[in-house]
């Protein structure tokens, strides 16, 4: 078996522009890779098969499709097509640690890990980021890791310096559909003539570099749709949390013990993670 892992991400800043003709939106995102990683292992098989394991609750794992609609199969097809290889059947094992449909790009991480494993198995030298950009807007960042500005639909990446800090991520057992979240935002903006992307001030980058909390941390155009789908998130935003991507995950910069005891009494799950982690990589047994 060949194994590779890839990180989930937080959006430390997320501005969403107009809807494009290709179905994506223009964005200005500051991505940061976190220490929650999924591990994808592959081997040749007589027919396609997918096994799922991991530390998440059964309710979370049940949200991951095991059939051909899993992003790992889509990734394999795109890889074989780009490589000009005859598709082969694969046994795929996903060890899932990134909460599902949570705004943490777990599916994109699996696609990135899958690409790294396939490149090793078939000894190719393909531009994985280019293949990844055809699978999903967050896949190139899951390949790159650490901290980066994402522009265009999120696939044009510019790495930036950041000190590793700790975050607490809180998430409910149910997810939010990214597509529905963007649609809700478009609906809210229906009267707006011109939709401008916003960008953080230069102090944001300096703060990340030295490990200080940026004042504009967590500015996110998808926060309002996320709260409209899950009004209970508002409580956690008022306690200093920020929605990642389309949510419903809420993250806290360097959390304190009081917050942890409040979360212990809530229905949310939570996990402590480090930021600025490496992108997709091969894992040796
Ligand atoms: P986004 O990257 O769009 O922000 P997200 O992080 O909110 O997405 P994901 O965990 O990537 O959400 O899952 C989105 C949906 O993708 C799930 O609800 C699930 O139906 C589908 N899916 C397909 N393959 C996978 C996979 N390997 N892992 C997780 N979800 C998958």
Describe it.
With 285 residues, this protein is α+β, with helices and mostly antiparallel strands. It has one domain (1-285): Ribosomal Protein S5, domain 2, CATH 3.30.230. The chain contains 10 helices and 11 strands. The protein has helices at residues 58-61, 71-83, 106-121, 128-135, 139-144, 178-188, 202-210, 223-229, 233-238, 257-264, and strands at residues 2-19, 25-44, 49-54, 90-96, 147-151, 156-159, 166-171, 242-243, 250-253, 269-274, 281-283. Strands 1, 2, 3, 4, 5, 6 and 11 form a 7-stranded mixed β-sheet that branches. Strands 8-9-7-10 form a 4-stranded antiparallel β-sheet. A hairpin with a 6-residue loop joins strand 8 (242-243) and strand 9. The longest helix has 16 residues, at 106-121. Bound molecules: adenosine-5'-triphosphate (ATP). Adenosine-5'-triphosphate binds next to helix 2 and helix 3.
Task: Write a short abstract of this structure.
The protein is an alpha+beta fold and 285 residues long. It has helices at residues 58-61, 71-83, 106-121, 128-135, 139-144, 178-188, 202-210, 223-229, 233-238, 257-264, and strands at 2-19, 25-44, 49-54, 90-96, 147-151, 156-159, 166-171, 242-243, 250-253, 269-274, 281-283. The mean pLDDT is 96.
